[in-house]
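Page 42, continued from yesterday. The earlier attempt failed because a stray header line got pasted into the input along with the sequence. Redoing it now with the clean sequence only.
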Amino acid sequence: MPLAGEPRSNANGPLRIAYLAYRGKPHCGGQGVYTRHLTKALVDLGHHVEVLAGPPYPVVDARVPLVPLPSLELFNDQFPMRKPRIWELKTKWDIAETVSFNTGNFSEPMAFSLRAWEHLAKRRGEFDLVHDNQCLGWGLLLMQRRERLPVLSTIHHPITVDRRLEIAHARTRWERFGKRRWYSFTKMQTQVAKRMTRVMTVSESSAKDIASDHRVDPGRIHVVPVGVDPELFLPVPGVQRVPGRIVTTASADVAMKGLKYLLEAIAKLRTERNVELVIIGRPKEDSASTAVFEDLGLTDCVSYVHDVPDQRIVELYSEAELACVPSLYEGFSLPAIEAMSCGVPLVTTTGGALPEVTGTHGETCFQVPAGDSEALAAGIRAALDDPDARARVGEAGRQRVIDQWSWRHTALRTVEQYRALLAETG
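This time it went through. Structure tokens are written below.
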């Protein structure tokens, strides 16, 4: 990166972007999907992008170099919350990650940001800017202050919302204490966010929450909605919809995603009709939704599918009569627009930005109040009983996506934010 006073690359020409992703599951979860598609679209526009990522590593386009920044993988799917051995602590950042973890904190964003800062400090002059994807760790401030790197952060939504919902839904006092400790990293994120020169988010709803929770000046928050590829996420010709089948995406089995309420709704509906729920995602042990799944004995009508490519997800949407997003809160919801793009009618809640994203009830989606399994069951029942409405809503939902969201459009608006950042810091 140029030192203070040195010219950067052509303000109107191709940009050199260091993109940070502290974790990015390839086929499940908004951050991995966002990383894959946005970086590809930026390269399509002629820009150079390198992805610096921690595990699980995202899948990126062949033209996008992936620079792995290994962590201790304390939260991997096979051995979550594992205790690292002393011989694994090879760097000061490994030690910092372990110490923070041992106090009950989610230490990954902090440690990743410091590893990324150390890496970029050795590559001074190679990048015009840094784009952080919701890490918001202390290392970003070091990039800004010590390396004079312009840094833009995407905040999909403030994790403080997750914290409030997780604490509110904790089943015991001890669990509530554990959630408070786990989410203590949000204090760091608030301190970093409010010091960012420019923040990008995905919806007006998230912008208001970021300003409120992270105390970021609203004038520094800019909305750039995410996109979808309507040529990939589209109705599959010749695929027959399975009567009574509903599909949902549970990228994270946490209270905010509302999976518990959908399972309760399915339990109510199965007493009166044949219904089947396919969950794209991996169940989390000892979660509220897992407890509901076991208590209600839903093994005969609920199944999980995980680690599948986009093509299979498209097929699953095409096979379903309905898709459902039962979230208590969403900053945007990629699964919602992916389902709509596939032409499957969507039953969604009114949590967070979902009305802003999915449109009008009865026109482009079916909407129900968040956190209400009775209302969710009623909404699904009404949609299943009205095939004409399903066909109309499914078609209109896809058209809404085509009209409003594409990754190219997202990339073009993101580049506008990059150039504004360079002008502000130049």
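Notes: The chain has two domains: 16-227+407-425, 245-404.
Reminder to self: strip header lines before submitting.
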